[in-house]
Amino acid sequence: MPSRRPPEPAEVRAALLAVAPWVDGDVDEAPPRPDRAAAVRMSLAALEQVAPGRSVEVRVPPFGAVHCIDGPRHTRGTPPNVVETDPRTWCALALGRLDFDAAVASGAVSASGHRAGQVAAWLPLVSPG
Asked: Over the Cα atoms of the chain, what is R_g?
């Protein structure tokens, strides 16, 4: 299976900005599914690129999941360090519109395991502006 090309920062930014009005609540209707999928998948790939490793699994159903953060590798069963959220919340985190700890505290993000919170160090994935 060929390896996938890591997304360019400009591609990640463009994909996330395409869904930003929805993330910010400026529009009620969700963007088309392909736009939401692209924003989630590209931003997850960017996270995987900037925080390489296999100790934390980040899940954004139904669009994707990646392993990241250096540390002990998990190979079977349910991983001990998991971050899971919905696409809108993930895009808000990736854009810097939402703080990771606040999202966990509100229940918008499920973070289990002692390494899961390390994902916060890599967010946002795009620079503001």
From this structure: 14
pTM of the model: 0.92
The answer to whether the CB of 98 falls within 8 A of the CB of 92 is yes
Report the pLDDT averaged over residues 41-50. Answer: 97
d(CA 28, CA 7): 29
Name the residue type at position 57: E
In whole angstroms, give the CA distance from residue 62 to residue 82.
15
Domains of the chain in sequence order: 9-122 (3.30.1050.40)
What CA–CA distance (Å, rounded) separates 111 from 78? 13
| 36 in Cβ contact with 60 (< 8 Å) | no
pLDDT class for 71, splitting at 50, 70, 90? confident
* Residue 50: both structure tokens together: 């900037």
